[in-house]
Amino acid sequence: MAIVEVTIAPFGTGSTSLSRYVAGCHRVLEQEKNLKYMLTPMGTVIEGDLDLVLKTVRKMHEVPFDEGAKRVSTLIRIDDRRDKKGTMEGKIESVQSKLK
Amino acid sequence: MAIVEVTIAPFGTGSTSLSRYVAGCHRVLEQEKNLKYMLTPMGTVIEGDLDLVLKTVRKMHEVPFDEGAKRVSTLIRIDDRRDKKGTMEGKIESVQSKLK
Amino acid sequence: MAIVEVTIAPFGTGSTSLSRYVAGCHRVLEQEKNLKYMLTPMGTVIEGDLDLVLKTVRKMHEVPFDEGAKRVSTLIRIDDRRDKKGTMEGKIESVQSKLK
Amino acid sequence: MAIVEVTIAPFGTGSTSLSRYVAGCHRVLEQEKNLKYMLTPMGTVIEGDLDLVLKTVRKMHEVPFDEGAKRVSTLIRIDDRRDKKGTMEGKIESVQSKLK
Fold first, then answer.
1. Is the ipTM reported for this complex over the cut 0.95?
2. Quick one: which of A25, A83, D47, D71 could link to A16 by a disulfide (CB 3.0–4.6 Å)?
């Protein structure tokens, strides 16, 4: 189980708005029943088996091309912890408990 | 107004747990009344005047050193949009409206 | 053909030095005859077929675990351009020609 | 002394080519006599006093706006090591010595 942040954006589309590409990527994610994910203002955080996550991110990377983009920039950040089960919720709770 | 994601982590601390450093960075953020921020599983997203955000991130970067770290890796991603007011909430809503 | 930057680093190893993990990752890269790559001070830039690059990066991500790490952070940045053949050399030359 | 990678790119310009913006950012860097820097296929790596680097990156971030862009994405990665003097050359040599 890994936690992975992904941000996918096309260059040269002529519009500063990128949300329709993000929405298209989320439609790919919706089809993966074994992944949890969370939309943030700067990307999407996905939790699940690392190989499944990466396979899904690879599909998401094609979305802007399918919609006409000619250049796509994709940022993937993997946090892979194997000494304990890392979850999206657990990471946030761990920080919040220390702030109390 | 810009939206900025920041992830700050020390190397070589001998522990795989990093949440106490994240909590320390949030204590710095709590003191800035003119910034909005959101904790995500992979970092912190901050909204506000870009110069104030960067000044604050610079302070946050010192937190792990203050707690004994000798090497710190900080990732900063700036999304700066000047054709309309970008907000953390607005970005998420824009995607969600296209998913309906 | 895509150009991909990758930075792989373990947390909690007790040492601030990370070069031996980078060297281990490069030994994986050396075995891929169809990829070009370049070491930079902040990561490794790889050029080649995107699926082959990602498959290789997936192997590189295991290197710190094989050497005893319990938590690994991997950053992958993909620049995928399909209107022309993007190469590492071509990108640098394009900037340099504009600086003359 | 820190080592910092920066990648600055505009969205919505209508062109997939970004090298003229990179060149503009390098003209800002050329004016800073106390910074070393290196162009890579995926960004620019800068070595120097962290506050001076960040002040310079802040100026570089304005370059695409000055040239008409309405949305700019800037990625900054800081590697700040205080147990020994980190240099761009030293980091590369450290890996290469382990590969021999």
1. yes
2. D71
